[in-house]
Amino acid sequence: MIFTHSVKVCLATRPCDLRKSFDTLCVVVRDELREDPLSRKVFVFLNRHADRVKMLYWDGSGLWLLTKRLERGRFCRPFTSASGEVKLALKPEALEMLLSGIDLKDGMRRAWYELPEKS
Fold first, then answer.
1. What pTM value is reported for the model?
2. Is the model's pLDDT at 117 over the cut of 70?
3. Cα–Cα distance between 7 and 91 in angstroms, integer?
């Protein structure tokens, strides 16, 4: 699944229990983020260790649930202001950077697992 640059992204700033699935994540979106889970936004959740991510997306006919688990390393959780924000709006480019291991704060790639090249 490829997101266009027109999609809106909403990142939950608090760690989330990623054992949750479609319905429970919809409740988190509605009750904690105060958003509509069917709004065609991509909702992004990181676990406490920031080594897993889940994304919830309504495409108009059904919900998508995308999951990534890092074999080594961590995603760089963007920092929010001290005001206790529960969500952060990201541009699709920032989401792509986050999922690619780039620290959004300083633009540096974080070290993590990559398959060795076959010779």
1. 0.84
2. no
3. 8
